[in-house]
Amino acid sequence: MSFQFTPDNKSRLDDLVKKYPNKQAALLPALWMAQRQNGYLSLEVQEHIANELGISPVHVHGVVTFYTMFKQKPVGRFHLQLCRTLSCALCGCEHIVAHLKEKYKLKEGEITPDGRFSLELVECLASCGTGPMMQVNEAYFEGLTIEKVDLLMQKLMKE
Ligand code: FES
User: Fold this and answer.
1) Distance from the CA of 151 to the center of ligand 1, in angstroms?
2) CA triplet 29, 116, 131: central angle to 5 degrees?
3) What does the pLDDT read at residue 2?
4) What residues make up the domain containing 99?
5) Residue 1: its pLDDT value, please?
6) Cβ(85) – ligand 1 distance below 6 Å
7) Is 90 helix (H, G, I), strand (E, B) or coil?
8) Mean pLDDT of the chain
């Protein structure tokens, strides 16, 4: 079945578009809304948004592939995005990554068989002063240590 916004989201999108000087300017919030509804932005979803906003699918795809906040394939119920950029690298993010891979069997770019976790290494998440850090869904976890990661993972495994 092809992607359609829910009636609520469609009405929200219509309201949103009115706040911008042109439809194209509403692209980022439209993509975000679609991702929240669908879980990720398949090519079909991207094409739907392109049609809704009257812009080319190639332009939409360019935006989707530029921002790591937009997902092009399904992610786990808890999507772990670990920052690997300079400040976090200097604070030892590679130890956190290695720990997540070894102890919890997470693989970069993959979802665990139970669908609970997925892991992605991303560039700076603008929390450079509190590295190493990661984003889990929409929440930030900063100043990570192996112990903090274990506590967080235990909590997430129970939810
Ligand atoms: S370098 Fe990791 S948040 Fe900026």
Assistant:
1) 22
2) 65
3) 87
4) 78-158
5) 58
6) yes
7) helix
8) 96
Q: Is the CB of 132 under 6 A from ligand 1?
A: no
How many angstroms does the Cα of residue 73 sit away from the middle of ligand 1? 24
- pLDDT per residue over 126-155, tens digit each? 999 999 999 999 999 999 999 999 999 999
Q: Is residue 2 part of a domain?
A: no
The residue whose CB lies within 8 Å of the most ligand 1 atoms, and thus the one to mutate among 93, 97, 121, 128, is 128
Same domain, 61 and 16: yes
Query: Atom of ligand 1 at shortest distance to CA of 86?
Result: 1
Q: In what order do the strands lie in the sheet with 139-141?
A: 117-122, 78-83, 134-136, 139-141
Would residue 141 count as lying in a domain? Answer: yes
Q: How far is the CA of 85 from the centre of ligand 1 (A)?
A: 5
Q: Is ligand 1 within 6 A of the CB of residue 133?
A: yes
pTM of the predicted protein model: 0.85
Round to whole Å and give the CA distance between 84 and 95.
11
Mean pLDDT of 81-90: 97
73 in a structural domain: no
